[in-house]
Design goal:
The structure is a homodimer. Chain A is an alpha+beta fold. Chain A has 5 helices and 3 strands, in the order ααβααββα. The structure holds a DNA duplex.
Chain lengths: 113, 113
DNA sequence: GTTGCATTTAACCGCTTGGTTATTTAACCT
DNA sequence: AGGTTAAATAACCAAGCGGTTAAATGCAAC
């Protein structure tokens, strides 16, 4: 799924995760978002475009400013993928674990403990 | 957290996600993993290194082969980050929603509905 | 309408990435 | 030792990324 590509790629950058964390506290302008970082404004603007492409935020005009807000849908998609796979993995490990225990008990029966 | 960088970056590639999905069905050799894809073996080998660096899999020697297995810990880390943030986001949206409803009721009181 | 502010776009740079083919390493089997 | 198989490494390439500075855009306010 191409949506997942964008979402995970967007989340792979610490600056972008920090921006998202900031936005979880409330909407903010580009300037406000840029302020805590030591990079230029165009760099932040690019990060915001990545987040927007990943559907993680929306930007809307307000006078001269662009106000950014979270858009949780994409995060849900990513979360669903991870959780679904985590369950599969754990089932797999449970089966493996059961198998190993079974093996162990057989070895014990043979006196190979 | 640098671990998250690696994990999310690893998950951002569809080939790598497919490899993980395959491994959820059980361990596999590099050749077996490469088989369904139309890319060269070295390409798969690189993907596996990325997954290994992200702590999503381990590779162990078995005769001439390298057997790959899932390693769920890193996925847990990523899952935790997403879920934690999702909760924050949703709280935020709940508060916003409550605020908007409050606003709405005030406007209605003023007859501006 | 021009000055000023907030942001984006353009053009560029160095590094990484995902891919290739060719070569090397490692382990097994005679 | 020699040959075969499985996988990794080397060397390379084109494209993408995250950053920069400089220029352009959009809007407001005088």
């Amino acid at each position: 799924m191409q949506q997942l590509d964008h979402t995970f790629a967007a989340l792979a950058d610490p600056t972008r995760r920090a921006i998202l964390a900031r936005l979880a506290l409330g909407e903010a302008t580009v300037g406000e978002l840029a302020e805590p970082f030591e990079v230029s404004l165009p760099a932040i603007s690019k990060h915001l475009k990545v987040l927007e492409t990943a559907d993680l935020i929306i930007r809307e005009k307000r006078a001269q400013q662009r106000v950014c807000k979270l858009k949780p849908e994409a995060l849900k998609t990513a979360s669903d993928w991870i959780e679904q796979n985590r369950r599969m993995w754990e089932e797999r490990f449970d089966r493996l674990d059961a198998y190993l225990r079974e093996l162990q008990s057989k070895e014990t029966d043979n006196g190979n403990g």
